[in-house]
Design brief:
Layout lengths: L3 E5 L1 H4 L6 H11 L3 E3 L8 H10 L3 E2 L1 E3 L11 H17 L4 E4 L10 H22 L2 E5 L15 H11 L4 E6 H7 L3 H8 L3 E6 L16 H9 L6 E4 L7 H12 L3
Helix pairs in contact: 4-5, 5-6, 8-9
Length: about 260
């Protein structure tokens, strides 16, 4: 199945000084299928969705939690936020939300973190199923960029999703972050693809372009994804150091497999 590629707009508006419209136009010109953002509370969000849809693209994802999933004391807040974001996603035809676990807490084991995170997602899952929106628990590295983040291991995230047992609760497998934490990316993708609902890319080291200056072979990685039955998006979430349009063209060409 051919890879459906998306652009994480904030990495290009914040880091490269592009306007949102320029990102969308670049996506159309290059051949991307969609664009994603990080939040939906901005007054510009409906306009952004309208612009994307008018160009024949799809808004592919945005962050759907403001409170940590692994902290029972704020579970009601987390579920309320996810519920609100699920409704927004359904309204604007956004297939999935990015859900952030939260940091480890002193005295709380990783096993307890699994149970707490699963319970929070379980509470939001029925509404996600009703509205046809996927909650994607994001894997991040806790070594370089997100010190203390608890969902930093594929097996940990898989166990959370397994416990929730919902077709609308999956994992956002961030290739950059997992390259730092685990490596062995292609084998992990092949063995766990059923649990993955979204992908992010970036070059390692540096979280910059996915070109020959970094250690990851994204053509091989995307070919491994394309060989499965995965039908979601692979979104480029890197910070360009040079010409952002050239970087987006190169990234698209490297990942255009299937």
């Amino acid at each position: 199945m051919r890879i459906k590629q998306s652009i994480s707009a904030p990495m290009f508006t914040y880091s490269a000084g592009m306007t949102f419209e320029q990102v969308v136009d670049a996506a159309v010109d290059i051949g991307y299928a969609g664009v994603e953002v990080w939040g939906c509370d901005d007054v510009e969000f409906p306009k952004q969705c309208e612009l994307i849809h008018s160009k024949g693209l799809r808004m592919t994802s945005f962050i759907g939690t403001s409170a940590p999933l692994n902290y029972p004391a704020v579970r009601d807040e987390a579920v309320a936020t996810m519920t609100k974001c699920i409704d927004t996603a359904a309204k604007f035809d956004v297939p999935g939300l990015i859900c952030l676990c939260g940091d480890r807490r002193e005295g709380i084991s990783d096993q307890q973190g699994i149970e707490d995170t699963a319970e929070t997602l379980k509470a939001a899952a029925p509404h996600a199923e009703k509205m046809g929106v996927t909650l994607n628990l994001e894997l991040l590295n806790s070594k370089v960029d997100h010190i203390g983040y608890q969902c930093d291991c594929t097996t940990w995230a898989v166990e959370v999703v397994r416990r929730v047992n919902s077709p609308q609760v999956k994992i956002l497998y961030d290739i950059y972050h997992l390259a730092i934490m685990e490596g062995d990316l292609i084998r992990t993708i092949r063995e766990n693809i059923e649990w993955f609902g979204h992908f992010h890319t970036a070059g390692n080291p540096g979280r910059h372009e996915i070109d020959d200056s970094q250690e990851l072979n994204y053509t091989a990685i995307c070919r491994a994804i394309a060989e499965t039955d995965y039908d979601g998006y692979v979104a480029h979430e890197f910070s360009p150091t040079g010409d952002p349009i050239a970087a987006l063209k190169d990234a698209f060409a490297r990942c255009d497999v299937g």
